[in-house]
Amino acid sequence: EIRCGPFKQLFHPEQLISGKEDAANNYARGHYTIGKEHIDIVLEKIRKQTEQCMGLQGFLVFHSFGGGTGSGFSSLLMERLSVEYGKKSKLEFR
Question: Does the pTM of the predicted model rise above 0.70?
Answer without folding.
Answer: yes
